[in-house]
């Protein structure tokens, strides 16, 4: 029987996710207000390159969650192995910098300096994976405290010392140290066991299986690199990243389902899936509504120069809405797969399993996205502004995301009996349209743009809180399940 409490873990993760939205916003305001567009675009490029540096982490981290959830004592071996893999990750990142830097107008030394993040990112991944297998809410704790710490760090290194992108890197470096210490503290019970070479033998033997799902995001993350190379500029990346800060709020709703994967691995019962998915949609509607109606205001708060990218926020919000479903469906499909528990499993068995089929679907999606994006950028680069290119980029991403998400939904329907209460979702959607529609009209008439954050930000935050509160109150009144949800929250607080 799994020790994971789905709703509890989800509530904890969501609560901390809400606070992370606020801390993340303040952090981004600091760096977007201080960094010029070229510097912010450089940080976006670094973020894309770092993903290539951590390409090897699934070889071990992938199994850490699955084995911990199944009470297999591989924790200490996982941590040691991940440390060894990080050395290879450093080499890969440096190679990427050498190849990409001459094709862009960014500082080679700044790109290279970010290599200090690689070992900490590997450690963070494996410790998160271990905790996700038995106490998924712990990851929410550690992420929150790390994000909170980055605010004074950014004020110190980016604002006060004016260290630019280097200051951002240092802030993330110290943030990862704090995060990793917290994760290690909670995971220490699972890493007291012995180091066993048979784990290494198993992981290396089927290393292709966890690496295979990494191919799709590996190719997908090349979009920022392709954009900077084809256009020869990182200005568009600045617009894209700023828009993503606001639109990315929707993705925090996935926190509610943080415990589903580990729960599915640990036991066969799946009757909670429909309820938890419905609740995730509930919060997705809330966050999507906030992202859309506050798109322009949020961008202005980050930096007035990004205000013109509000359309990009709306388009990316739609993309992330479906992307969140995509990730959830993938977790469910791989979580119910048990081929790796059968000792006699052959290569052909893995190929036929959902552990291979799901990432194959994602790979096809990503290749389609990158190929079409490259052609669009090549043919529109000479006739479009950087902002127009980003708009086309965002529209393409949405058009690719939707059909593949729908396809995964059909696979879910064939594989698991998930009872989604459509009438409840309809109530949430109608409530959201009414509440956020009225809020938008009021905002347009009452909020005045002011470059002084001390005068502009309080009224913006009050408006966000009031609109979210109105959505919550109305849904509590009209839906008994939501009332029960908040009753359970109060009970957990009392406990």
Structure description:
Helix 13 (260-266) packs parallel to helix 16. With 495 residues, the chain is mainly α. The two termini are 23 Å apart. It contains 22 helices and no strands. It is globular, with a radius of gyration of 22 Å. The chain has one domain. The protein is 79% helix and 0% strand.
Q: How would you name the oligomeric state of the polypeptide chains in this document? A: single chain
Q: Please indicate the count of domains.
A: 1
Please trace the helix and strand order, writing H or E for each element: HHHHHHHHHHHHHHHHHHHHHH
Shape: globular
Rg over C-alpha atoms, rounded to the nearest angstrom: 22 Å
* Largest sheet geometry: none
- The DSSP helix count reads 22
Please report which band the strand proportion falls in: under 5%, 5-15%, 15-25%, 25-35%, 35-45% or over 45%. under 5%
Structural class by helix and strand composition: mainly alpha
What is the residue-averaged pLDDT?
Answer: 89
Number of strands: 0
Helix content class: over 70%
